[in-house]
Amino acid sequence: MIDLTSWEARFAAFIERSEMQADVAHDREHVRRVVANARRLADAEGADLAIVIPAAWLHDCVVLPKNSPQRPLASAMAATAASSFLALAGYPPFHIPAIAHAILAHSFSAAIAPLTLEARIVQDADRLDALGAVGLARCLMLGGQLGLPLYDPAEPFPHQRSPDDDRFTLDHLYTKLLGLAATMNTPTGRAEAERRTAFLDQFLQQLASELGV
C-alpha cells in the first residue's frame, strides 16, 4: 500500500521548485485545484489514486508560455521530467508509465487521447479548472499577461466573425472554454463541466447587458 499522504508532500515540494512563471494561469494554485478535482473524480469513478494523484500533482511541472510554438510539447516534457523525478524518488516503478501517459494526455493543445481511466480523470480534472468562476478568472489573468484587450470594440461577441483569442481575451471562451464540457471523458466530470459552463453563459449574458449589445 502506497502512503500517498507522505508522497504528496514530496510532490508539492517538487512543484515548489519548478519554474512556473511562464503562464499566470498555470501556477501552483492551479495544480492544487487540479489535484482536488482529480481526487473527487477518482473517488466517484473508481480510479487508482496511486496513478491519478501523482499525475495531477506533476501534470504541469513543465510550463511553457501560451504563445510559444513549443506549447504543444509541454505535456511531453512534463511527462519526461515527472518520470525522472518519480524514478529517482523511489516511487513504485510499475505505476510510472501510467502516470506519464496521464500527464502526456492531459493537455488540450497536445491533442493526445487518454487511453486509461486514470488519464481520463486527470484530463477532466484539468479541464474543469478552465471552467466556472476559476476558469473565467484564469482566462482574464492570462489575457492581461499577454496584453490583450478584453473584447473587440466593433463586435464584442464573435457571432458574425471568427473568434480570435490571439487578439481578444473574451474570444477564448468561444475558441475553447464553452466547448470543453462536450470533451469530458467521465460522467462525473461532464456533469460538473456543464454546471461550470452554465456560469460562463450567465457571465456572457450579464456582460452583453452591461455593454448594451
Report a brief summary of the structure.
The chain has helices at residues 4-17, 28-45, 49-58, 74-89, 96-105, 117-128, 132-145, 171-175, 187-211.
Descriptors for this entry?
HD/PDEase_dom, 213 residues, single chain, Cyclin A, domain 1, Hypothetical protein af1432
Describe the structure.
- With 213 residues, the chain is mainly α.
- It folds into 2 domains: 1-115, Cyclin A, domain 1; 131-212, Hypothetical protein af1432, CATH 1.10.3210.50.
- It is built from 9 helices and no strands.
- It has helices at 4-17, 28-45, 49-58, 74-89, 96-105, 117-128, 132-145, 171-175, 187-211.
- Helix 1 runs parallel beside helix 3 (49-58).
- The protein starts with a helix and ends with a helix.
User: How many distinct helices?
Assistant: 9
- CATH C-level of the largest domain: Mainly Alpha
The profile of the biggest β sheet is: none
Coarse shape? globular
CATH topology of the largest domain: Cyclin A, domain 1
Please tell me the overall pLDDT: 94
Beta-strand content bin: under 5%
Overall strand count: 0
CATH architecture of the largest domain: Orthogonal Bundle
Total domain count: 2
Distance between the termini: 58 Å
> Class by helix and strand content?
mainly alpha
Q: Percent helix among the residues?
A: 55-70%
Catalogue the unreliable spans.
Answer: none
Keywords: Hydrolase
InterPro entries: HD/PDEase_dom, HD_domain
GO molecular function: hydrolase activity
Protein name: Hydrolase
